Amino acid sequence: MACKLLCFLLWLMAQLYLSLSGEMNSLESVPDLEKLMYVAVDGYPCVRLLNLSGEIGCSNFSPVEKFPQAEFAPYRNVHYEWNPIGNGIMLNAYNFPVFLLSQNSTSILREAAVKNEEAEKSYTTDVAEFNLVMQTTKAGTHDSKSCLKEGTCLPLGGYSVWSSLPPINISSTQSKPIILLVASMDSASFFRDKSLGADSPISGLIALVAAVDALSRVDGLGDLNKQLVFLIFTGEAWGYLGSRRFLLELDLQTDAVTGLNSTLIDMVMEVGSVGKGSSEGVNTFYAHATMASSATNQTMAALQRAQDSLNSEDVKILPANSSNPGIPPSSLMAFLKKNTTTAGIVFDDFNTVFANKFYHSHLDDLSNVNSSSIEAASTIIARTLYILASKDTNISNSTLAAINTNVSLVEELLGCLLSCEPGLSCDLVKNYIRPTTTSCPSNYVGVFLGEPSSAPYPGTVNDVSRFLWNFLAEKTAISKGDVISSCKQNCSQKDQLCVREKADGKGVCVTSTTRYVPAYSTRLKYESGIWDVLPADSSDPMGMLDPVWTESFWDVIGLRVYTVQDTGYDHLVLAGGIAVTVSAYVAIVVARAFITKALKRD
Prior knowledge:
Elements: H1 2-26, H2 30-37, E1 38-41, E2 43-45, E3 49-51, E4 54-56, E5 99-101, H3 103-118, E6 124-131, H4 135-139, H5 144-150, E7 153-155, E8 158-165, E9 178-184, H6 198-216, E10 227-233, H7 241-252, E11 265-271, E12 278-279, E13 282-289, H8 294-309, E14 315-319, H9 332-338, E15 344-348, H10 371-389, H11 397-401, H12 407-418, H13 427-430, H14 463-475, E16 480-485, H15 487-490, E17 496-499, E18 506-511, E19 514-519, E20 524-527, E21 530-533, H16 541-545, E22 550-552, E23 558-565, H17 567-601
Parallel strand pairs: 9-10, 9-11, 11-15, 13-14
Antiparallel strand pairs: 1-23, 2-5, 3-4, 3-22, 6-23, 7-22, 8-10, 8-19, 12-13, 13-15, 16-18, 17-18, 20-21
Helix pairs in contact: 1-17, 6-10, 6-12, 8-10, 10-12
């Protein structure tokens, strides 16, 4: 009997070894074991954001308010619904993980759910595990002031870019009035890494960049009566960080704004959402003006003149409805909050309410814009700027007809900034910089890295800002030098810049007035490697409203699926293990007695 039991145990161990040998041979490390046990699920997490009041959810269609950032409006009617389908869920706090699944991950989880449903009486279940621990939650720092103090977060921000055409002569005693063309480069979304913002605001950014390109090919720009300045903000989706910081730098006359003076700004023209202006073959745009002034009247007339120069019924520019409470949510609001007499116009694809149904949603992607609408807007803007800046009051149609948008450039920019293929690995971007990421583009502002500077280390500036800086510097340059290596150290003149330095290890020296402007909360101060929140200043109404946005640190973010056994089955396995152990012990005792008896007999 004992011999039979011992043989059975040996046979059982042999079968167990054979069944596992194939898998064990491939398991050489813990990662191999985890790969066998878990199925990784890719997607986009909701990342914890904070302000001075506490935490919010993340950043669905339009998850922001019906009047986005109404607290910065320069008029009293803050209950007007520019975004009527907005539900505001992005500003809620959630105490559970939220994850946007990719198409592949949706299939994986659907299969797991079906498997669970079909195997209702089985001893295994597929479950999901989140790894989304936010350090601010772990450390108990639930607002921006406390998390900055404890070092569990960083402020939202980055670098805005501005450039002038032609370059500004800093040493000249005669300064021209400035026409400021403005756009934004950042968006927001419930999911941090899916903040594309195709229509709002990237269509406006692309229109501005294409307009700069069109004007750069015009001769005689040095003879213009007014100075053209192009300004691209970042951080506008989060309390107008970029525009408010720019205005403060302008007041302080820092190195970041050398050559600019707020008293010289004659007109601010902002390019907002222009990707949905096309309908039934006609591109229609609306000009939202500040209070009537000679500057706004001239701009409206210039827009009409630019439209007429197209000799086409396919493009229309109309004044926005006078029943609107004022200008729509835009960077121009920050200018008006600072100076109520600022003359400005916001150029948009909507009249009384947003045409974009996916404002600040992950669904505002490439499919939500029309390239022909952006191209038409860019041409109109370029011609309008030339009309406003020119000393010639009777510009010929042939002169204006020569100012046209490069259609191929618009198409390239759409692919670079809004699609995964090619994304920022496109030839256009790689011609100027070496991108730090090859993943799908996201136009989320990100966090501010390092010490604020007008000449930041390239590693602290995101790819889009670096590309725009290089592109604008080259397009607005009046002369190009020879291609040399390490040109940052060897550009001979003080007002020269080195562009394309990271593209192929070499660079080109150009004479251009193009600068970075730090974009972060005006309530923050960086000192000795630490961010401090400054007390609210009653003399700064915008600073009083500043929410001071920050983003929590986190470790590896992930979601994975694995199989767990029913507890009843675990108990059965435990009982079986105990039975096998007891049986083995009994077998050993019996075998020992049998062998001892046999030896004595011999």
